[in-house]
């Protein structure tokens, strides 16, 4: 593509000898060979532009056609990749995990979205570069420095050069490239538009309910065995999930995240909150394991004080006092699950949590 136009204001008589030499080269006149005296005067003189060498595409129409098809192919692949992006987003389940070397086990959806979007953008870039390198004019023109405010005739020359560049780029002539480029550029933004689907629909009741219901057994999360009261010793912290959860279940991770419980045994006389006492069994209390700040799993228990600590931002809850917040950024107490013992002697839930678990959200009230 032409870089600039020529400056008609600059006359050769007014230029120093080395500028005049460069100017001559720029105007297509072979540079004048400098005399030994001139070279000795200025050993770092501008050598001027090297002579233009035509590319194979400039002299061979079939090579130019091949390049045109390559560019069109790259733009077409970009369009197909965008279609692949949209198809992946619609078809692939969010929790499907695949093995991809060398990354290991990763989300199939994330992998497909990244791959297709990257390919779509790369092909547009590669097509544009190949087009510029092989088909657009590569003749270089030099222009001498001029005042920042260009005179009207120079502006007119720039406009003429711009039009000439557009003409030489083949944008008007090469309909195949133009059509596929516009297609690729028009389709790439669709990848962003389709992601707006994740803004809806509203979760409605999904954030309010967990898998706990009346009669569901409390199962030790590590051993997968139903818990009896005698399995919960004073000072220990036990993690539990509802019975019947299979690791292969489609929503396993989501449901465990919502229903995970912390179970501790506190001497009944140490329990300060009356409701907490009613909802426990012989001092065994069950609370949501999900921090009410931004949802990290709570894991540190201090048996002397009955405090549990969230490792993410150090919110601290007092399990002997309704799990109220005694330190940190969490906004409210951990939800308690009402528990009892069934006729076979196993710990069971007496219903679901009576408030949403996890972080606050705007419809919580
Ligand atoms: S997530 Fe628990 S304190 Fe921030």
TrEMBL record:
Keyword Acyltransferase: no
Subcellular location: Cell membrane
Keyword Transport listed: yes
Transmembrane parts of this sequence: 71-91, 111-132, 176-196
Signal peptide: none
Record domain Rieske: where: 253-348
Keyword line: 2Fe-2S, Cell membrane, Disulfide bond, Electron transport, Iron, Iron-sulfur, Membrane, Metal-binding, Oxidoreductase, Respiratory chain, Transmembrane, Transmembrane helix, Transport
Similarity-based family: Belongs to the Rieske iron-sulfur protein family.
Protein name: Cytochrome bc1 complex Rieske iron-sulfur subunit
């Amino acid at each position: 593509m032409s870089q600039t136009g020529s400056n008609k204001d600059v006359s050769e008589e007014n230029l120093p000898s080395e500028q005049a030499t460069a100017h001559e080269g720029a105007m297509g006149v072979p540079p004048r060979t400098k005399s030994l005296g001139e070279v000795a005067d200025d050993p770092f003189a501008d050598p001027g532009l090297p002579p233009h060498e035509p590319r194979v595409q400039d002299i061979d129409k079939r090579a130019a056609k091949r390049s045109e098809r390559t560019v069109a192919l790259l733009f077409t692949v970009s369009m197909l990749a965008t279609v692949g992006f949209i198809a992946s987003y619609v078809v692939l389940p969010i929790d499907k995990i695949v093995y991809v070397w060398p990354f290991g086990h990763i989300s199939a959806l994330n992998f497909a979205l990244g791959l297709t979007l990257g390919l779509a953008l790369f092909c547009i870039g590669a097509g544009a570069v190949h087009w510029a390198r092989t088909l657009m004019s590569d003749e270089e023109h030099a222009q001498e420095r001029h005042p920042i405010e260009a005179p009207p005739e120079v502006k007119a020359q720039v406009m003429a050069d711009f039009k000439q560049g557009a003409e030489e780029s083949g944008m008007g002539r090469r309909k195949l490239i133009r059509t596929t480029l516009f297609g690729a550029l028009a389709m790439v933004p669709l990848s962003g538009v389709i992601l707006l689907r994740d803004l809806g629909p509203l979760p409605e009741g999904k954030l309010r309910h967990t898998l706990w219901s009346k009669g569901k057994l409390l199962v030790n999360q590590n051993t997968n065995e139903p818990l009896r009261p005698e399995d919960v010793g004073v000072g220990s912290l036990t993690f539990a999930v509802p019975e019947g959860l299979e690791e292969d279940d489609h929503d396993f991770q989501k449901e465990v995240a919502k229903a995970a419980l912390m179970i501790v045994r506190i001497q009944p006389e140490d329990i300060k909150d009356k409701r907490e006492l009613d909802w426990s069994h012989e001092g065994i209390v069950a609370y949501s394991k999900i921090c009410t700040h931004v949802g990290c799993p709570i894991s540190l228990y201090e048996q002397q004080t009955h405090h549990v600590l969230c490792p993410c931002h150090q919110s601290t809850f007092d399990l002997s006092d309704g799990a109220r917040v005694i330190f940190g950024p969490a906004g409210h107490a951990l939800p308690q699950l009402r528990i009892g013992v069934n006729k076979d002697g196993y710990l069971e839930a007496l219903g679901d949590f009576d408030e949403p678990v996890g972080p606050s959200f705007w419809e919580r009230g």
